[in-house]
Structure formats: C-alpha cells, structure tokens
Design a protein that fits this description.
The structure holds two protein chains of two kinds.
Chain A lengths: L3 E4 L2 E4 L5 E7 L7 E6 L6 E5 L3 E2 L7 E6 L2 E6 L9 E6 L6 E2 L3 E5 L1
Parallel strand pairs in A: 2-11
Antiparallel strand pairs in A: 1-3, 3-8, 4-5, 4-9, 5-6, 7-8, 9-10, 9-11
Chain B lengths: L2 E5 L3 E2 L5 E8 L8 E6 L5 E7 L6 E3 L7 E6 L4 E6 L8 E8 L7 E4 L3 E5 L2
Parallel strand pairs in B: 2-11
Antiparallel strand pairs in B: 1-3, 3-8, 4-5, 4-9, 5-6, 7-8, 9-10, 9-11
Classes of the chains: A mainly beta, B mainly beta.
C-alpha cells in the first residue's frame, strides 16, 4: 500500500497569507493525486485532482503542483473560509490512500 | 444538484451486523462507480470499498475484507454496505462518495455521513 505523508500536520496563518502544504508519496504515483478540504462537522470537498486540475467551482486562489512522489497545495491569499483540514489522496493504485491531514488554523 | 444521503448508522455490539444505505440523486447513478469512505472520531479519512457502475467489480480495504460487502441497486439509485463481525475499530462516520468517473477513485461528491458506533 502507498503511504501518503503530509507536512506540516498543523499550522497557524493569517488571512491574506500565502500558504503551502506538502504531500509525499512512499512511491511514485505520477500525477494521480487529489486534494480535499474538510471543515468541522462537514464532509470533505474535492479541490484538485490530477495533481493540478482545479475542480469546478473551486476558487482560483487554490493551486496544486507536483508529480512522482512530491506534491504541494498552495493557497495564494488565505480567506477566512479556508481555515480547515486538508487531505491529499493518491489514486494511482489500490487501496486509494489519504494523508493524515493538515489542519490550518487562524493565527 | 448531486445529493447523497446515508442512513443506517446506529450503536451496535462487537460481533454484530449492520447495513448502511446511501440514496443518490441529481446524477445518472448507473454511470458511476461508488465508494464508502470512513472517518474515525477525530481521525483522518480511510477508504473502505468501491463498486463499479454495474456492480460487477468490487474492491475492499484489507481492514474490512471478508467482513463487509458493498452492493448497489441501480433501479433504486441506492448504494449499500453490509457490515458483519463488527469491531470497536470500525467505529466511524461512514461517507458515501461518488466516483468522478468510471473507476477513477477520485471522490467528487460526498454525503454527510452516518455514524456507526461499535460498543458493548
């Protein structure tokens, strides 16, 4: 099974900041990577798939990059509604697997 | 509008059984694979199972293989998860999720989840 590791596990930032979350796969997954956002008490929401393709309706301040084993999710200008937990997920092979999550909190 | 509504979550004793349901609407149900994904309290996401659009192919996480069975009824736009031999570690919020494509394993829509608690 492919292990996904996110860093950091949590951090604080301010509205307007540019933030980057990193996701590393235990083996190469090409670009078969998705990012999800989850707010407390809510279901996850798909943000990005194929490492860098924005899901319909997702604001353009979100972007993704990477291939192989190293990936990043960048939020260019944090808004109040972006404070949430973010998960990466590989779908290169079975079983599909998630990172442990990165909790983004307000500073 | 895509809607996924799970039901069936309850408190059940270890070793017990349970059947979860997911009612889908707002899309052509039999065009897409469907998944169950769970989240233990305060923990991350864990994929549980997948069923192809026609029910002909199913896949399971090792943690539930041999105990859980996924199925679907396309005439009722419904997805199911039969859970047997339940363990404390199966306690979680169970989400029904739509696959983005055939069997891409990208989850583009999620329900709100149904809570399964395994406890004596």
């Amino acid at each position: 099974a492919i292990r996904m590791t996110q860093s950091p596990s949590s951090f604080s930032a301010s509205t307007g900041d540019r933030v980057t979350i990193t996701c590393r796969a235990s083996q190469g997954i090409s670009s078969y990577l998705a990012w999800y956002q989850q707010k407390p008490g809510k279901a996850p929401k798909l943000l990005i798939y194929a490492a860098s393709t924005l899901q319909s309706g997702v604001p353009s301040r979100f972007s993704g990059s990477g291939s192989g084993t190293d990936f990043t999710l960048t939020i260019s200008c944090l808004q109040s509604e972006d404070f949430a937990t973010y998960y990466c997920q590989q779908y290169y092979s079975y079983p599909p697997s998630f990172g442990q999550g990165t909790k983004l909190e307000i500073k | 509008e895509v809607q996924l509504v799970e039901s069936g979550g309850v408190v059940v004793q270890p070793g017990g059984s349970l059947r979860l349901s997911c009612a889908a609407s707002g899309f052509t149900f039999d065009d897409y694979a469907m998944h169950w994904v769970r989240q233990a309290p305060g923990k991350g996401l864990e994929w549980v199972s997948l069923i192809s659009w026609d029910g002909g192919s199913t896949y399971y996480a090792d943690s539930v293989k041999g105990r859980f069975t996924i199925s679907r009824d396309n005439s009722k736009n419904s997805l199911y998860l039969q859970m047997n031999s339940l363990r404390a570690e199966d306690t979680a919020l169970y989400y029904c999720a739509k696959d983005q494509g055939g069997i891409l394993r990208v989850f583009d829509y999620w329900g709100q989840g149904t809570l399964v608690t395994v406890s004596s």
